[in-house]
């Protein structure tokens, strides 16, 4: 098959998906026919059904790059690697560059109707088209389904078409493109021209894995940090302690580190009980003890008690109606074992990468991070508590605040000190407690916990009612797994505001403040 080499205008950020779709459209071929000409030997021999591994636009296992370069004068893999490096080389080395790009196709309507798609659209830290400043789309306008960022597997002999047959480009005939390729979005423009000094700071910034899903909020947070460091040269920091011997590393002081996490979590719970939960202790007792009057329905649940109970359930992976106390190790702790469940895989990955770090410095960082993550997760539960407490049911975690609105906590290394910045901190709304004028369990209310009913020869109907109540709350010992895919201890209780949406913290010799 002889390929027409005409191409829609290309800039340095055009995606390989866009390049291949233009080639298919200009030559009236489908993906199978394209691979018959430019495919690797395994991809050519797969038949009509093409494995996803051969459609992958990161590994290019399905493409013979030498054949492609001989025909079009450029290497797809080199082009993609160049874009990836320009957008991600400033991140710490433990972050996989591919993880900073979306798995689903995101596109600009204005760009794609002209036959152009940019890797900037796939970059997780962009929410709008940098060329047209319009919101990026992620669904087919016809079938309303997402499109995988892969070479399409359908058999339609053209490009820029969804699996449902809907054309994404305005015209399926070749013509000169009028797409505007000047980057107008300020954040991405500044990102692409970071100074060497700023790149070095960012490469030494500790970024927690889940924050990579924060889109342009993460980029804006990072740019604010770099600007603040350059302008203010803040004095709020912890000095970096260099590891002088292996015994000072985290891996050799893990027991102490583990118990520092336990202490921080105890401190956070005490903080909640003295602040948010101060006037709702009896509400908590009523919910956990399943108190009600015999023969009546279970009473309305206080939203504050509701949020606390299910925050504790999801954070520690316990059944709050059975295991009211989380289990922690009391003897030797296994390497990288953690005393909590929520996001533990992400914490573990961070610890494994920094395991040779000085224990005192890393303990300070992780304890502050843990406090903020626990606090954010509790506020997520507060955000849904009023609605679901009234209905006496427990939602899945997907019903909580989307990950894209999560607080962002960053720890940049500036010269010989590490600072802490917090962005997008949730400020919860005030909730209505149905027992705000009460201070104790009402007379006549007794506990209907199933264990108590089993011990006492209670009414069968009451037992069934209690079981139905718990079933609606969907409480289970391992109800969810909130982990994602692929030496100073203590409790931070003082923050100093820097700007309107970030905070910096300082350290004293006797602990974290």
What can you tell me about this protein's structure?
With 513 residues, the protein is mainly alpha-helical. Among the domains are: 175 residues, no CATH class; 163 residues, no CATH class. 37% of the residues lie in helices and 6% in strands. The chain has 17 helices and twelve strands. Strand 11 and strand 12 form a beta hairpin. It is globular and about 85 Å long. The C terminus is likely disordered.
What tags apply to this protein structure?
single chain, 513 residues, mainly alpha, three-stranded antiparallel β-sheet, 17 helices, 12 strands, 6% strand, globular, TniQ family protein
Brief account:
With 513 residues, the chain is mainly alpha-helical. It is 37% helix and 6% strand. It has 17 helices and 12 strands.
Blueprint of the fold:
Blueprint: H1 16-27, H2 31-38, H3 41-44, H4 65-72, H5 76-88, H6 109-112, H7 119-122, H8 186-191, H9 196-203, E1 206-207, H10 216-232, E2 238-239, H11 254-274, H12 281-288, E3 291-292, H13 303-316, H14 344-353, H15 359-391, E4 408-411, E5 413-414, E6 417-418, E7 421-423, E8 446-447, H16 450-455, H17 460-473, E9 496-498, E10 502-504, E11 507-508, E12 511-512
Antiparallel strand pairs: 1-4, 2-6, 3-8, 4-7, 5-6, 9-10, 11-12
Helix pairs in contact: 11-15, 12-13, 13-15
Protein name: TniQ family protein
Organism: Paenibacillus anaericanus
């Amino acid at each position: 098959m002889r390929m027409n080499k005409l191409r829609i205008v290309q800039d340095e950020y055009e995606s390989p998906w866009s390049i291949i779709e233009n080639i298919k459209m200009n030559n009236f071929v489908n993906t199978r026919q394209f691979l018959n000409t430019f495919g690797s030997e395994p991809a050519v021999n797969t038949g009509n059904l093409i494995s996803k591994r051969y459609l992958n636009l990161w590994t290019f296992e399905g493409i013979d790059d030498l054949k492609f370069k001989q025909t079009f004068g450029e290497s797809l893999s080199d082009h993609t690697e160049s874009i990836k490096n320009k957008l991600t080389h400033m991140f710490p080395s433990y972050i996989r560059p591919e993880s900073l790009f979306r798995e689903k196709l995101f596109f600009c309507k204005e760009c794609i109707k002209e036959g152009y798609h940019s890797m900037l659209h796939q970059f997780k830290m962009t929410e709008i088209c940098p060329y047209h400043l319009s919101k990026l789309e992620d669904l087919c306008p016809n079938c309303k389904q997402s499109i995988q960022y892969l070479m399409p597997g359908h058999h339609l002999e053209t490009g820029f078409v969804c699996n449902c047959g809907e054309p994404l480009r305005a015209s399926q005939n070749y013509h000169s493109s009028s797409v505007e390729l000047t980057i107008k979005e300020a954040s991405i423009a500044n990102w692409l021209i970071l100074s060497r000094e700023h790149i070095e700071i960012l490469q030494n910034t500790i970024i927690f894995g889940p924050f990579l899903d924060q889109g342009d909020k993460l980029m804006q947070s990072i740019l604010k940090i770099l600007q603040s460091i350059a302008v203010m040269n803040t004095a709020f920091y912890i000095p970096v302690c260099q590891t002088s011997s292996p015994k000072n590393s985290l891996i050799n002081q893990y027991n102490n580190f583990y118990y520092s996490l336990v202490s921080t979590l105890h401190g956070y719970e005490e903080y909640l009980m003295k602040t948010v939960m101060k006037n709702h202790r009896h509400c908590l007792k009523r919910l956990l003890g399943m108190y009600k009057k015999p023969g009546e329905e279970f009473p309305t649940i206080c939203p504050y008690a509701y949020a606390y109970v299910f925050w504790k359930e999801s954070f520690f992976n316990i059944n709050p109606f059975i295991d009211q106390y989380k289990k922690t190790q009391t003897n030797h702790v296994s390497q990288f074992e953690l005393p909590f469940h929520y996001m533990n895989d992400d914490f573990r990955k961070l610890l494994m990468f920094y395991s040779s770090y000085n224990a005192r410095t890393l303990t300070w960082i992780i304890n502050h991070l843990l406090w903020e993550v626990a606090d954010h997760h509790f506020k997520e539960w507060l955000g849904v508590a009023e609605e679901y407490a009234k209905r006496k049911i427990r939602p899945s975690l997907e019903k909580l605040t989307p990950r894209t609105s999560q607080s962002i906590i960053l720890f940049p290394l500036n010269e010989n000190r590490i600072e802490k910045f917090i962005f997008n901190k949730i400020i919860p709304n005030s909730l209505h407690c149905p027992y705000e004028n009460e201070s104790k369990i009402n007379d006549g209310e007794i506990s209907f916990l199933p264990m108590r009913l089993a011990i006492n020869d209670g009414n069968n109907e009451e037992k069934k009612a209690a079981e139905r109540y718990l079933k609606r709350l969907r409480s289970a010992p391992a109800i969810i797994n909130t982990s994602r895919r692929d030496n100073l201890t203590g409790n931070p209780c003082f923050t100093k505001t820097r700007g309107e949406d970030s905070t910096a913290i300082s350290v004293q010799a006797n602990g974290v403040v």
